[in-house]
Structures are given as structure tokens and as C-alpha cells.
Design goal:
Radius of gyration: 16 Å
Number of strands: 0
Number of helices: 7
Strand content: under 5%
Order of helices and strands: HHHHHHH
Shape: globular
Structural class: mainly alpha
Length: 149
């Protein structure tokens, strides 16, 4: 079933405050880092970006691909768009975010498939766990970049 939420409704649902409201960044970071799973991080992280990725990439792909593949492609598209933006700013081709986001997408898929959840632990432990997934995948990406540079 296709959601009919507007961007403003979606952001309020994810952040708990209206679009552009004071505290929206704090709420987003708190909810994302404090999510009970790595999948959950991406339900709250950057809701404006997530709204458009979900609406224009994830949902259309999930209509004919397995959801796990649609998730991976959505992460890759997000990474590629970040790479394009940085490439324009630096006036040179950058290919860093695509593999990093792809790796995080794989972590999301695998952790969701095996049911990794840590909602029973305190917020600081959840935040440390979620940040660890992000930073370990970042470190792996840097490592791989040095191997192929």
C-alpha cells in the first residue's frame, strides 16, 4: 500500500516535531543513534533525504525486486549522489560514498535478516552500537580505498 504522507507529515512522524522546528536536528540524532537496530537508524536519519529516497528509489524498486536488493540499491544511489555532489565541489571524480553506503546497506540487510536488535539496552549503549556500525564500515571503506588507490 502506497503511503500518502506529505514531506511535512513524514518529517513530523520521524522527528516528533514539525519540519524546520527548533529541536528537529537534536530529535533526529537522538532517535537515529538511539534506534534499537541498525535498520532503525535509517528510519530516523535525515528524514527529508529519506523521504525522497523512499518515494523515488526504494518503493519503485521494491515493486519488482526483492526488498533486500531494493535496500542495497537505494543505499548505493544515495552514496552515488553524495559522490556526485562532492565531485562537483572538488572538481574531480570522487568515489568514496558509494562503497561506504553500499557497505552500510549490506549491514542493514544482514542485521535485519538475522534479527539483530538491542532495544533492551540503554540509549548510550544503543548509540554506541549504531555509531560503531557506521564507523567500522567507514574504516573498512578507507582501508579498501587505500588498497585500490
Amino acid at each position: 500500500m502506497k503511503s500518502t504522507l506529505s514531506l511535512a507529515q513524514y518529517v513530523k512522524k520521524r522527528n516528533g516535531v514539525p519540519l524546520g522546528a527548533s529541536g528537529s536536528m537534536t530529535n533526529m540524532l537522538s532517535r537515529a543513534l538511539g534506534a534499537s537496530s541498525f535498520w532503525g537508524v535509517w528510519q530516523y536519519w535525515n528524514p527529508i533525504w529519506g523521504y525522497y529516497l523512499s518515494r523515488n528509489i526504494m518503493r519503485p524498486l521494491a515493486s519488482f525486486l526483492p526488498v533486500s536488493l531494493a535496500i542495497l540499491v537505494t543505499f548505493l544511489v544515495s552514496g552515488a549522489l553524495h559522490d556526485i555532489a562532492v565531485s562537483i565541489i572538488k572538481w574531480k571524480i570522487v568515489l568514496f560514498f558509494t562503497p561506504w553506503f553500499g557497505l552500510m546497506g549490506l549491514v542493514v540487510i544482514v542485521s535485519k535478516a538475522v534479527g539483530i536488535s538491542y532495544g533492551q539496552v540503554s540509549w548510550p549503549v544503543r548509540a554506541l552500537t549504531n555509531a560503531s556500525f557506521i564507523f567500522v564500515s567507514l574504516g573498512i571503506t578507507y582501508f579498501l580505498e587505500t588498497l585500490y588507490a
